[in-house]
Specification:
alpha+beta; GMP Synthetase, Chain A, domain 3; 3-stranded mixed sheet; 4 helices; 34% helix; 15% strand; elongated
């Protein structure tokens, strides 16, 4: 029977991805703690990793909490599926790797910054 940390990871990841049937979690316990290895569809990597890795960091944080509750150290490894980097980008995933040209940026004057008091007043008028 799967442990709570493995069940939790499967639940969270399957809720994020477009191909939940492709989500596989392997669980290995050793002297270092619990290692959960996540395999998923190549198209879903971006959803699980998130912008700047923030989604993956959040999942790892939640897994640590689940582990602390069960007196275990839980680590997550996300396996890159075959064809995961279709653009041939390196690990940085920077603007050059994504063919960034800046064409989405707003042209013209940038919006003026408000002070905290002005922003709070604006919220009060809603």
């Amino acid at each position: 029977m799967a442990e709570k940390d493995q069940e939790f990871l499967e639940f969270v990841v399957k809720g994020l991805v477009e191909h939940p049937a492709d989500v596989k979690v392997a669980r290995v316990v050793d002297e270092m703690g619990v290692l959960l290895t996540l395999d998923l569809n190549a198209e879903d990597m971006g959803k699980v990793i998130g912008r700047s890795g923030n989604t993956a960091k959040a999942i790892r944080t939640l897994l640590r909490v689940v582990g602390m509750k069960n007196s275990a150290r839980v680590n997550l490894k996300i396996n890159e599926p075959a064809g995961g980097r279709q653009d041939g980008a390196g690990p940085s995933g920077g603007a050059a790797a994504q063919n960034w040209d800046g064409s989405h940026e707003v042209k013209g004057d940038s919006p003026q910054m408000k002070s905290l008091d002005e922003a709070m007043d604006s919220l009060g008028n809603l």
